[in-house]
Fold:
Amino acid sequence: MARSHKAPFWFLFAAGGTVVAFVLPVMVLVTGIAPTLGLFEGAMSFDAMSAFVGNWLVKIVLFGIITLALWHAAHRLRVVAHDFGIRADAPVAGTVYGLAALGTLLTAIALLGV
Amino acid sequence: MSRKPYQRELPKTTWFLRHARYKKYMLHEISAFAVAVYLLILIIGLFRLGQGEEAWAGWLSFVTSPFGLILHLIIFGLSLVHTTAWFKAVPQAMRVQRGEQFVPGPTIVGAHYVVWAAVSVFVLILAGVA
Structure:
């Protein structure tokens, strides 16, 4: 029987979409909007953030969230390219999944450096 | 033998503006750009955190700049579009059977909203306590 290589990408898309749906709005609120409003100033201070991300459990959870979200966005952007009339799917897929792989690697390096 | 299949004229970049349903579809597909930009900012932030206090302060000053705020507000809006569209589609993707009956769609969607609220409150408490 012919095997499809679509399954792993589809799984990453679905898992990533679920993770993004549940955690992204509140994450954007805390890291992107609250600092300007002066909320959670203590949480976003260098010392508190270093201690928080320094925790191994937090590193693993953050890596999971960011990686799945990256692969979700990559798959969707591939579809968006198709929707805007770009029919060269192979190079598009190579680019978006390549960027997601690069992002996964950079996330791991960044997390290990904290 | 040559054949000339009929190809409907379709504007490549504006076709979705023709119908409210297409516009909605495009809005939640476009949310992927917002997710990608946010992840980029977040990953840079993690690098800056590892580089020391000054680097972190520089990243925070970008986030709190007017441009950073507007960017994050747009990302926040599109993330809400993604969440609501995603939850709406769950009953189509996941059929939950209990006994002889299938759990009705609105119940499944409602459960997702409850979990979403719980996760959000948990993260906010985490941020408030830390």
